[in-house]
Amino acid sequence: MEWSSKLELGIQTVDTQHKNIIERIDRLEIALDSQATSVTYPRLKEAHEFLESYVGSHFREEEEMMEKGGYPDLAAHKLMHAKFENDLAKFRDDLDHTGLITHATAKLVRYLSSWFIDHIKNEDPKYVPYVK
Ligand SMILES: [Fe+2]
Question: Residue 113 Cα, ligand 1 centroid: separation in angstroms?
Fold first, then answer.
């Protein structure tokens, strides 16, 4: 999964955040594909922690914009964000409890990639006319 200008919503702050999140996930995917020995548990934890906190502030910012713009489907959109954050927390528990780096990581990265791209392509564009 790579960032592409096709994923831009035309809102600079949001696009920058989406790009940073995708690049971070992409870096993990590349590291995993190359089976680099640098993909260690602490590194993975650090990547996960970054994503968890960065994604959290990104979602709060989007939600605030939607609220200000009077986006009618805010409640449903918030639920999608909450589900993703909840799943991210579950992966953290998996990582901590199983210690199975490759399995947990592969699962985490696949899930993050597909959810995020799908969300940016299909859900986020719906709020754009309200916040511009
Ligand atoms: Fe969103």
Answer: 14
